[in-house]
Fold these 4 entries.
Entry 1:
Amino acid sequence: TQSFEGAGGAGAAIRAFGGPARGEVYAVGVDRRLLRHDGQRWIAMAVPPPAGQRENLTGVACLDGGVYISSALGSDEGRLLHGGADGFVEVARCRMPLVGMAALGERLLFVTGDGVATYEGDDIRMIKSFPTNAIYPGIGRVFVLQPAPERPMFAEYEPRHPQAPWWRLVY
């Protein structure tokens, strides 16, 4: 976690970074903090309001169709925003917090605290249930962490192996 100290920043924690180009990088964080770096400076951006709920922005991922931002609205709801330098709009809302996000090819995957979900069409749906708290992209796969495991471990999802796309590695 990093902190943003600047106009309107108030020390807000930054949770994720990402962007499609050197001159277009986004940082997201607690209390709907959205910043864009234009190659020279950080600029605070507006986030479409979530109807009065507290919201933490949790992930940034880039696909050919643009930039996506995930969020957690409290502990039981999430939403997905899509856009870029001109602004963002809500494209999906679900009954689970989107705790983190990673792109896998042209697909978006999320950890929800209770598993891994995917965005397909206009819907976010769960694809695997187990305790989760972080997701990281790899080449052709994603790595998922569980909260406070007894032994160091991670889960790996590699969909190009349809017979066994999920692996759990324990050390």
Note: The two ends are 26 Å apart (CA to CA).
Entry 2:
Amino acid sequence: EDDARYTLDFIKRTGVDCIVVDHYGIDVLWESLVFGQVRKSVVIDDLANRNHCSDFLIDYSVGRRKFDYSNLVSSSTKLLCGEKFFMASKELVKTRKASSSNFDKLEKVIVVLGGSDCKNDTKKLFDIFECDVNLEDIRFTFVLSEANPYFNELKSRSNENIKVTGFLNNL
């Protein structure tokens, strides 16, 4: 509630037109207090497990569908769901475009699944990459938030082919 008051005060002082929120600690009550004071609101979510009241909702999770939010947002919310809405820095996009011609000779792969990974999908991929003999020539790097509850467990399993690291500042 204090955060909503501070945000509302900031909006009044600065005349902000649009607010973008990506925070697990912000709920629909906060959104309903704040979003009514701006022209447009955007929520970035990857859990599809709670209500939102924004103009736009972005969930770039692989396989995410609009249907997953059907009972969680109003019918007026514009849903942008699926991996095609993934947001990346210009540097990452340039690197990907530059390497696409060599895609058949994969040697190094970076895996970023987001901050919380509450279902421990990273471990599932780690187990697959570790056991699949067809992948033994590829070096994988998992980038996780150090707040991830499985971070230390996965980092301790790092080996020659699979590394686990904390978030990179320029990703």
Note: Helices lie at 2-14, 28-34, 90-99, 121-131, 151-156.
Entry 3:
Amino acid sequence: RNAPLAVRGTRLAIRKGLGLFANIRPVTLYPSLIDSSPLRPERLAGVDMIVIRELTGGIYFGEKTRTADRASDLCVYTVEEINSAKTKVVLQATHNIDFNSAVVIASPTGSLRAEAGNDINVNAPVTANGGDLDFRAGNRFTLAAVASLDSPGYIDIKTDNVLLNGTIGTD
């Protein structure tokens, strides 16, 4: 974490080149920070957890730009990367999330959660073969006429405005 940028870039290139997919981070509870946590102290007592974070794509490998007064990192996931998930896929965006290609979470334990500060626009079929579909949009959720949502679990949509023109579920 405190390594120079050149070293961090090298590590990411090695991980990508070798097809490594995870970064393992143990959770450390510092007693001096317990009062700063949004969790109650009794919930933190004896915490023993490891966070496993994927590193196959997204912001780590996206195009980076920097000017004198602005910097950005492009976060891109391919349909194949999302479809190959063996666990819960969580997509988060400050503004919008657009599904413009079919997404099929094939794993029986896989599910999809999309959280957008503004809009979620579904313009293609989105399917979870074993898990749930969960959408959280700060402004609007739109399911286009050519799109569908299908899951044997629950399909949950939470937003201020909903426009449903497509199909939800199957017979």
Note: The chain has three helices and 16 strands.
Entry 4:
Amino acid sequence: NKTNQFIECGVEPIGDAWIRYSAVYYLYALVFVAFAVDENYLIPVALVSNRIPKKFGHHPVRHVQVLSPMHRGRTGVSMLNEQLQEVLNPADPGKPEKRFGGRLFRVGDKVMQIRNDYERDVFNGDLGRVAALDLGDQVLTVTIDGRPVEYSGSDLDELVLAYACTIHKFQ
């Protein structure tokens, strides 16, 4: 059964919550990875990058969403996003990247809009992928819901990496 497949993959049930979330998995073809707060970040990184894709054939960026209850710490969203970016979308001399504040964006990154922007028709919580980065014009193009959305300058503070996000933000 599916529960045993998840356990073999390294994802363990957490009481009744597992049963509720397993329905979400089947309905939306997403895998939600839950883990203890004090664990090492390498555990969810290994699950997302290797074990879940091998076992279930899911794409680690499109079909898996890591959720964490917090931003800081070893298993906080900040650390997980840095580590998942390095594994799932590593630096490459032929791939442009742009640092904005403390965030590094690369073509191919999974990102989230964190504020409503009615002019661009993108909203808090919208997920997308970085499709292009023009280093000359300093424009980052993100595909959100199948359409390109351009960001430049201070607009980039509306984006964060989204390999992992907080449970609160994902609601």
Note: Strands lie at 31-33, 64-68, 97-100, 103-106, 110-113, 127-134, 139-144, 147-152, 159-161, 164-166.
